[in-house]
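Q: Predict the assembly, please.
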Amino acid sequence: MRPLGSPDTWGPASIALRLPVCGIAIEGLSARQRDEVARNHPSFLAAEGALHGTAGIVCQAGRLPEPLSIPAEELTCAGQYAPRQVRRGGGLEVTGINFTAWVPLDAAADARTPAAARLCVAREEELPQPMVLENFLRILLAHRALGFGGMLLHSAGLVVDGRALLFVGRSNAGKTTLSRKADAAGARVLSDDINLVLPAADGYAVHSVPFTGEFRRRVALEPGAVPLAGILLLEKGPRLTLAPVGAAAAVSALFAQCPFVNTGAEEAPGLLDSLARLVTATPVARLTVALDDPFTTIIDRAQGAFAHV
Amino acid sequence: MSETSSCRRLSLSSRVRFRAVGDEGVLVHLESGRAVVLNETGLHILQQLERGPRSPAELADSLVETFEVEASQASKDLAAFLAELDAEQILGGEGKPG
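A: Predicted assembly structure:
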């Protein structure tokens, strides 16, 4: 299937989002869907026509003939939600909870020609929902980032003294708890769930993304990139500890936290290469945090580990 | 006698990838996204298997030659490592789907 034809659409409305690695225009929306997407992602809206003539993505919204009935366990990997991805030709067929999608992987022959994507749901209200649109964008960005030498990382991204610290960990590692402490202390939280890391002129930078976990939905996003100061492999423990991590151990730990691309035979080698470059340029340490450790103490310890960099 | 200690020629499963990182290596399982760190010896064994199927005896000889260890020690360490790889379904074998 390469669903580039004319699916049954939801309406004539469209919306454009400016994402860190590409712009995306979503067409075939109902007015209600467009308004909901605009409400959910105000920081990423692009002006009508602003993406025309750029190498971006045009996504056709479409209707599924009936709701999907896929058992949740079939969309789970290692305890985490994992939409099914099947590579066909130049893209991915994706099946997730309440949606199917086509994600283009090949670069367009003409750098100014947008690549075609598709996102289909059975009910009008489903498309703007985070479980649908945000997961579609997560998968899209995860694959696009690889082409830029970057990656999505399951992490809490906090800005301290103008530089980002990424606290990387699996679900329940304490990312949202730490983000709450950071927010209460007045620090900027980029995301408590997934952050986009891309090479920058001087090292790496963390970019704002339109999907931000449960904590961040309550806070307005500030688009843009923040220089990456360091990465901490976050774990819960009885007391605050910090330990150095070797390059291979860092790559191993980070690989497991790169969703959507770390199970792909075609993507894994490139992801390993990108992570190896990342840990060469960016300090990585292992941080164990107790539930009642104050934010300032955690940050002092984390920054202390990277003070020599 | 286990499969890996026989004359079976071993290869890497198509479900894994690995990469050298410094003197160590990182091995990833594509089905789970899980990754493990390999020490220098483990990395060497996987690099040998990447070049083509090898018997345990050939791998042991390579360890002796590269790391200047006693043959008996190399065989013992190799058997333990191959058993771990086999348990994790990281090994394929000739005539056996990877």
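The longest strand of chain B covers residues 16-21. Strands of chain B lie at 10-12, 16-21, 24-29, 35-38, 91-93.
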